[in-house]
From TrEMBL:
Domain of life: Bacteria
Name of this protein: Polar amino acid transport system ATP-binding protein
Membrane topology: Peripheral membrane protein
Pfam families found in the cross-reference section: ABC_tran (PF00005)
Originating organism: Microlunatus panaciterrae
Cell location: Cell membrane
Keywords from the named record: ATP-binding, Cell membrane, Membrane, Nucleotide-binding, Transport
Keyword Membrane applies: yes
């Protein structure tokens, strides 16, 4: 079987993934799968490698070891004439366009309105006609509850509104997979709910999502599966009830007693 076809039906499959920054081994052999339409919440103490794992999937970092497939493609490599080659920038851009990512900080383009932020990638990456991109962007802003803010600049929006624009912008490329990296951790507490609400509705619609979060309540309610990481390894995983209510591992129990 070629390496390209070994996702075994999963949308994401990570096998023995390792990542070091110099001497610092941040991920130490992580195996993980995510199925289509599945919501996986990634929990764990700060520094356990969760963000790095998302960044590897999105090719913002390169693997030290192991393999990650997204769909039928091996991340970071391309098969030509039966041999694996390191991907070129244009291959990476194409692979990334299948994945939407929402960061802790709502890094919107400050000189563009909410609408222009959402239109940007479809117009410049997908070469979509402006009128069509505009129509789709307006629909996405409606979906995240911001129809009336289309013409506002990021500085004129609250943190929660900016983060909802960031979600709409990520969705604009119609990604197969959405990655969320602690999307509510930079928000004032009263703004967390509106962002989690949008994520909850995306999950209900069957969006495939990997969510790094400290929001245990959200994970319990929305996740199909919870993965607990610590020290660069997956400590345990299972249904939200299994991991969050009846954790098997002492490290999981310690973490949960701190965040709950
Ligand atoms: P988490 O998301 O679980 O808090 P991270 O993946 O952000 O964990 O970080 C794991 C470790 O990797 C930390 O020790 C962090 O300092 C280190 N790290 C992350 N990115 C880099 C980088 N670009 N260069 C060096 N070290 C990094």
């Amino acid at each position: 079987m070629s390496e390209q076809s070994t996702t075994s039906g999963h949308l994401v499959r990570a096998v023995n993934v390792s990542k070091s920054f110099g001497e610092n081994e941040v991920l130490k052999g992580v195996d993980m799968t995510v199925d289509r339409r599945e919501v996986v919440c990634l929990l764990g103490p700060s520094g356990s490698g969760k963000t790095t794992f998302l960044r590897l999937i999105n090719q913002m970092e390169t693997l030290t070891g192991g393999r990650i497939w997204v769909g039928d493609e091996l991340i970071g490599f391309v098969e030509r004439n039966g041999r694996l080659h390191v991907r070129k920038d244009k291959d990476i851009a194409r692979q990334r366009s299948r994945i939407g990512m929402v960061f802790q900080r709502f890094n919107l383009f400050p000189h563009m309105t909410a609408l222009e932020n959402v239109m940007e990638a479809p117009v410049h990456v997908k070469r979509m006609q402006r009128a069509k991109a505009r129509q789709e962007a307006l629909e996405l802003l409606e979906q995240v509850g911001l129809s009336d803010r289309a013409r506002y600049y990021p500085a004129q929006l609250s943190g929660g509104q900016q983060q909802r624009v960031a979600i709409a912008r990520a969705l604009a490329m119609r990604p197969e997979l959405m990655l969320f990296d602690e999307p509510t951790s930079a928000l004032d507490p009263e703004l967390v709910g509106e962002v989690l609400g949008v994520m909850r509705s995306l999950a209900k619609e069957g969006t495939t999502m990997i969510v790094v979060t400290h929001e245990v309540g959200f994970a319990r309610e929305v996740a199909d599966r919870v993965v607990f990481m610590d020290g660069g390894v997956v400590v345990e995983e299972g249904s939200p009830d299994e991991v969050l209510l009846r954790p098997r591992e002492a490290r999981t129990r310690t973490f949960l007693s701190r965040v709950k």
